[in-house]
C-alpha cells in the first residue's frame, strides 16, 4: 500500500474527512531489512533448530511523530 492509497482509505472510512484534510507529512518510512540465517531454539524441547534467512518490514518514525509521542515525557537520568 502506498501513502496515497493509505490516505484515500482513511478518507473513505471517515466520511467527515476529505482526502485533502489527511496529511501524513514526516510520519516515517517503511523499509525492508534482511535477517540472516541462524540457529534458534525450540522453547518446548530446548532442541537447536535452524532458522532460514528472511526479510522483515521495518518502520522508522519521522521526527514529528517522535516528538508528538514523547511530548510531555520527562527525560529519565539513571
Overview of the structural elements:
- By secondary structure, the protein is of the alpha+beta class.
- It has one domain: HU Protein, Chain A, CATH 4.10.520.10.
- Helix content is 23%, strand content 31%.
- The chain has two helices and four strands, in the order H-E-E-E-E-H.
- Strands 1-4 form a two-stranded antiparallel ribbon. A two-stranded antiparallel sheet has the order 2-3.
- Strand 2 (38-41) and strand 3 form a beta hairpin.
- The model has no long low-confidence stretch (mean pLDDT 87).
In short:
The model has no long low-confidence stretch (mean pLDDT 87). β2 (38-41) and β3 form a beta hairpin.
Enumerate the spans where pLDDT stays under 50 for 5 or more consecutive residues: none
Strand order in the largest sheet: 1-4
CATH topology: HU Protein, Chain A
Q: How would you sum up the global shape?
A: elongated
- Considering the protein shown, what is the CATH homologous superfamily? IHF-like DNA-binding proteins
Secondary-structure element series: HEEEEH
Into which percentage range does the β-strand content fall?
A: 25-35%
Proportion of residues in helical segments: 10-25%
* Overall pLDDT: 87
> Given the helix and strand composition, which structural class is it?
alpha+beta
Number of domains: 1
Main pleated-sheet profile: 2 strands, antiparallel
> Architecture, CATH level 2?
Irregular
> What is the CATH C-level name?
Few Secondary Structures
Q: How far apart are the termini?
A: 41 Å
Query: What integer value in Å does the Rg equal?
Result: 20 Å
Amino acid at each position: 500500500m502506498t501513502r496515497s492509497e493509505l490516505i484515500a482509505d482513511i478518507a473513505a472510512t471517515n466520511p467527515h474527512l476529505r482526502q485533502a484534510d489527511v496529511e501524513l507529512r514526516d510520519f516515517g518510512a517503511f523499509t525492508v531489512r534482511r535477517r540472516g540465517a541462524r540457529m534458534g531454539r525450540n522453547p518446548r524441547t530446548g532442541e537447536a533448530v535452524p532458522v532460514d534467512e528472511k526479510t522483515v518490514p521495518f518502520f522508522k518514525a519521522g521526527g514529528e511523530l517522535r516528538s508528538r509521542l514523547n511530548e510531555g515525557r520527562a527525560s529519565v537520568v539513571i
